[in-house]
Amino acid sequence: MGHFGIVGILVILMTVLTYFGLDAAGLAKQMHPVAASAQAASIDQLWHWEMMVISFLFSLIVVPMVYSLAVFRQKKGELKDGEHIEGNTQLEITWTVIPLFTVIAFAYFGAYSLGEVRRVDPDAFVVNVQARQFSWTFEYPEYGVVSTELHLPVGRQVVLKMESADVIHSFWVPEFRVKQDVVPGRVTEYRITPTKEGSYKVRCAELCGVSHAYMENKVIVDSQAQYEAWVAEQVKLAAEAQTPEGQGKLLATKNACVGCHSADGTAMTGPTWFNLYGSQVSLADGSTVTADEAFLTESIRDPNASIVATFASPSVMPPYPQLTDEEIANIIAYIKTLK
Amino acid sequence: MAHSQDKHSALGQGVTIFIYLAILTLLEYFVAVSFNATSLLVVMAVSKAALVMYYYMHIYKLGADDGADPHSYAYKTGTNRFGLWLFLLSDGFVFAGLLATRINLLGFTRPHQLSQILGLGVTAVLLISSFFMNRGETAMKYGDRKGFMLNTAITFLLGLGFFIGVIFVEWRLAAAEGLTASFGNPADGPMGAVFYIMTGMHAFHVLTGLIFLYVVWNNARKGVYTAEKHWGVEAAAVYWHFVDLVWIFFYPALYLIGTAV
Amino acid sequence: MKNMNPFWRGMLALLVFSLAGYGVGLGLDVLVDGKVNFSGPVPGVFALFFGFTAFFLGVFGYRGITRGLVWQVVGTLIGGLFVALIRLVMGLPAFGDFFFTEPSWVFGGLTGVLSFIVGVGVVDDWIKWARGLDTPEHHEEHYSDWRKYFGVSVDHKVIGVQYTVTALLLIAVGGLFALIFRTELAASKLQFLTDQTQLFGQNGPQLFNTLMSLHGMIMIVSILLGISGIINYVVPLLLGAQDMAFPRLNAFSYWIAVPAAVLLLSSLFLGGFDTGWTGYPPLSARAPVGMQMFFLGVFVAGWSSVLSALNVLVTVVRMRSVGMTAMKMPIFVWASVATSLIALTATQFIGLSFQLVMFQRLFGMGFFDAAKGGNPILFQHLFWFYSHPAVYVFVLPGLGVISELLPVFVRKPLFGYRWVAMSSLGIALVGFLVWAHHMFTSGMNEYLRVPFMYSTLLVAVPTGVKFFSWVATIWKGRISTPTPMLFALGAIVVFLLGGLTGPPNATVSTDLHLHDTYFIVGHFHDTIFGGFVFPFFAALYYWFPKATGRRMNETLGKIHFWLMTPSFLFLTLGMMYVGLIGMRRRIVDYDPALLIDGWHLALTVSAFLIAISVLVFFYNFFYSIKNGEKAEGNLWHSRSPEWQVPSPMPVHNYDRPFEVVGEPYDYGLNDAGYVKFIESAGGKHG
Ligand code: HEA
Ligand code: HEA
Ligand code: CUA
Ligand SMILES: [Cu+2]
């Protein structure tokens, strides 16, 4: 058998090996992690096809190279020239045209797959998403519910209408596969049909500042029954929250304060609110103040007015010019309850 | 062709081209004030640019045969010329980027605060300066040092006039009309930002052009240039026309295209 | 002091003056703030500037680079104080958090760069020309030993070496930053760069962001300098030219890169910034002052790139030897032309995009501020219109090196020379039409996604032509594998991995998952290492004897290769894997629930292995300059013109001009070579 024959067989062998190697790592037939949306299925299918082509192309280049290295070596101390081959126009045309068709096929299937991903279900329901440094809030306009967890019923398409309060963020649930930036000044859309119940996370995928790494909220895909139960509970909670504390808690969720301030003492981006009211707070300039209404109001109105010790200056906490005095009072009423 | 003319016809050609350019500019203006025809404006701007590049900037010289001796002045000048054009190409991308920014942010609208008369005025001043630049360079080509110095001085003064007209008159008027680059005023929108960056960047080039003109004028005074060797003069002229060329596109982009809002 | 070794004298000066600088910084802090801050940024900046400058002062005396740096410091201070004064008059605060206010720093940064240029002496001749004076064609060097590299020289070989060494230093700095942040990533949670860490006014996570962003940009600048280094050294030699077309401009291009690098690094001390190398607004409109220094540094480095590209193009068009028609140029020249076409034009867009953000910050002009009617996505278009083509700027010279070296070591002609040459131009041109593939998820107009997918995938075709031609070149050759060849072969495999992971990014729907994950990080480290780092090392091993007359040690070279290649492959394949699982880019900490702690630890270990291999290289490089085995002849038995004369290369290149009489890669034919030296042409030529 000539060199060509051997290399041909080796290429096929290597392609198969590469493909099965990828498959063994769980990477050929699907991307990682588990697929949990209808969109993921069509994306994974494209990926599978790409992995096959890539396995082949990788082998096609590497095998003849390594083979030549092994077989056509110069002996030690020898200095002979190889055959004088300058080129071959037919070959050049072949390896221009075949890849050309391959990439056109890639693009064609890519466009097809994108069409699948973007397919609109007329029954889709809407959730409004607010992204801000460094957390997400979800508003269900149908029910008037605001939450820091995104609950979705399985099997039904949802359209997230996303807005950003400050910088660019990006909504990504790896299990859903799809990613969409959230850009200040415009509403971007994210369409997904969850297919697998479970608890996932939305992970902000666009660098948005110091705590970008922690901009993760829960995304829970429920069965229809569970989902309805959750909605009912949220509606009830919202109705109960007519007291100042209740309003305050709602506001803290809505404005994403809870993305940086914990209610139970856990360390997060900002100081915890647990046992905050009435405590002695040491400030970065070395002084100490009592956390009374006046101090808390000032801290919320102008985060840079006094920086809490060990926190960075200027404060990463954004100002909230839209909060009214009453709303701030409500938030402080809520903070008071955290003991 | 241009390179085998006598001095008289070379100067005459400069006049003819200037007349074409002036007519086109006026046409632009009237087209813009009477009806909204962006594509027509683009066609006219491109025609003006072509005239300037060919007759004033002598782009055809890039293809000239500079002889075989790499040590000759002609060959070195050819090399320099090619370098200069590449520089202009590169610099042109800055202005192309600004135009793209303008189109993206403003679309088919333009700031209404700008004075049309002033716009046409400074455009005319810059165009006339190009005309004198061409006369100056032609003079030098025929060894007329005095003529060169006179025409370059006129060019310089017109350029200075343009600079002052844009920075000290138009900027102030526009600001007085309420067009500002927004020192913290959110209501301003991108109009002011685009207007000041475009005119500012262009004015910066005018300023460097003025310095360049002064340098060659001063060197001519010292007798550095001759009819055969005056690459510095050619470079200054080409650069000056380039600044004009940019304005050929910026003028309609700022004053003429779209509706004023 | 006089008879001390200059290097140690420099080190001594460095020690003394960085302490002095630290003291001055502390003093200034006290003056302005009224309190002592030992870990503040100001003493750090002063220590760095003073120490750095003093080192060169000790080595080299007060001229060349030393004078440049001193002038830069003074120029920055004067510029900054000037603005402070104006602010004082206008009733604004004159000083800010980082000693100066932001406008002071920006203006001071600019005057600092200009002062450097004047101080270093690279514009002396131009100033004379402007005054109507003549200058000599050739300058005599002040020094003829290694010290000539520390001052202005207009010899393209000296400039080539200056570029190359600067690039290597920057790779070391950028790599060091990578090692620091990789150490933090070795396990989830914060252990190394924690909330309590305080350095230069930044806490751990902020420092992570700054280091990560600077790693990206410093590495990119080092690539730009690295390719300029190789191109500068090699292209005139390959063409048979005496120098570049514009030697002074050439020196200028190099010397503005130095203050640019200083500016870039200074951002670390001025509060850093947290946007990644891409600097997207609105985040970059809010970052600390360091952001402005970063923008300014890149802007100035961009001009270096533009001007040297201009020079290369003119040189190639105007300075070829007799008989060297376009299709007889060595293939590396084609690659340089393609690269330069991109660098000449597209670079203006990154400069412009950064400039607009700078103005937005300084004057409140709302280009990208949605609240003022601006458009944040416009920035991304402007930025990627450069930064995508830029990736081909990085790789085209590298691919050119591969095409140049393969024929020598397989002793066979380059297969399909014309196709390889044209594929470089093809990549460069198509590369201009694909930028929006970085923005598939950005929220730009929907309808743009599919056309940009098609155009992006199209680049695979000319790139494929290169790969297939390389394989055909190797096929049935007579292959030997000294270190340069090893790196060329490694480059092919690594670049192939990088290239083949391109199409999954380019098809929109898979990119929706892959975008901004470590899969992308793996993709581009593969393309960059395969397209630049490996070929760069190949070129260094290959042309080192030409520059020094000695060769680098083979054993150390092989250790370098065999340590770096597997570690690197593991690093990038591992990155791709964790990326698929859900590891996002640019995060200081990751969710332990992803179960990738073990992977990350292994990735960090491989990063350190790469660093060790690079240290081996550094040792080999600097040791061999003086102590390497002598190699003055045609070491690699190449047919290329530069190897037909003894090494190191004579000062004015070829003593006799040559004429091209054959094809560049006629291995396997025994008749006349590629070039023939012209006897008695009167000695000199140009
Ligand atoms: C040296 C640099 C370099 C090179 C050469 C490339 C080459 C390519 N890149 Fe890469 N890329 C980067 C550096 C580079 N890239 C960087 C730095 C980023 C990230 C920037 C950031 O966000 O920070 C990036 C990001 C990036 C993205 C954006 C991803 C995202 O953020 O979501 C995309 C998407 O399309 C992409 C695609 C490609 C493609 C299709 C190629 C092609 O040119 C590859 C072509 C080569 C081959 C395909 C292999 C050989 C060909 C054959 C064997 C022929 C047959 C092949 C086929 C038929 C397929 N790259
Ligand atoms: C030339 C380009 C280049 C090179 C060579 C490298 C080299 C390396 N890169 Fe880098 N990388 C980029 C370009 C490059 N990178 C870019 C553009 C980004 C994107 C940034 C962004 O997102 O904005 C990036 C991002 C990036 C990330 C992602 C960060 C994040 O998203 O959070 C990671 C993570 O592991 C990484 C790792 C590494 C490692 C381990 C190396 C190793 O190869 C490094 C090996 C070490 C050395 C080469 C140094 C050895 C020398 C010494 C130790 C001597 C020191 C001595 C002295 C100072 C005298 N890089
Ligand atoms: Cu929000 Cu990252
Ligand atoms: Cu790209």
What does this structure look like?
The complex is a heterotrimer of chains A (339), B (261) and C (686). With 339 residues, chain A is an alpha+beta fold. Chain A has helices at 3-24, 38-71, 89-118, 224-240, 244-254, 293-301, 325-337; strands at residues 125-132, 135-140, 145-147, 150-153, 158-164, 169-172, 179-182, 188-192, 198-203, 216-222, 280-282, 288-290. Chain B has one domain (2-260): Four Helix Bundle (Hemerythrin (Met), subunit A), CATH 1.20.120. In chain B, 75% of the residues lie in helices and 2% in strands. The longest helix of chain B has 34 residues, at 73-106. The mean pLDDT of chain B is 89. By secondary structure, chain C is mainly α. A two-stranded antiparallel ribbon of chain C has the order 1-2. In chain C, strand 1 and strand 2 form a beta hairpin. The B-C interface holds B 70-71, 75, 78-79, 82-83, 86-87, 89-91, 93-94, 97-98, 100-101, 104-105, 181-186, 188-190, 192-194, 196-197, 215, 218-219, 222, 224, 232 and C 129-132, 245-246, 249, 306, 310-311, 313-314, 317-319, 344-349, 351-353, 356, 359-360, 363-367, 371-375, 378, 381-382, 385, 685-686. Dinuclear copper ion is lined by residues 134, 169, 204, 206-208, 212, 215 of chain A.
